[in-house]
Amino acid sequence: MDRFEAARHLGLADTEVVTVTDTADGTAVRVKDGSERLVTDEGVFALNDHPATANFRRWDGSDAPAEALAEAREAAAPNEQPTAGESTEDRDGKGGEVPDGNADAVLDWVGEDRDRAARALEVEVEREHPRSTLVSKLRKLAES
């Protein structure tokens, strides 16, 4: 399962999913809010104590999913902080350019990132026929 599939399965925006790691028990997912979840054929389980997963069943199987996420977190630790004007998604090659798709695709790519909203707004207003509703939404996000 990749980041986009995990986001769809969990009902989250793509930008909310930080790490996806396949394990023998299922797919371990770390979310931007700090919650960690395990997606299995039996459902979604909480891997850590977090308010966002308070209503999830707690995983009581092997420690492999939590360990896999811990290893991924440790491996990424030196690179987690973006430089000024850069998001972590830009650096890892998963989103440096504004998508050339429908308004929903652009807004999904932006998420709540003010810098991305500003970049998307620049691209949109330069179009031959800018989409007024998208421009309005991007302005609000960029100025928030």
TrEMBL record:
Disordered as annotated region, ranges: 70-104, 124-144
Top-level taxon in the UniProt lineage: Bacteria
Skewed-composition ranges (Low complexity): 70-82
Compositional bias of kind Basic and acidic residues: 88-97
Protein name in UniProt: Uncharacterized protein
Source organism of this protein record: Actinoallomurus vinaceus
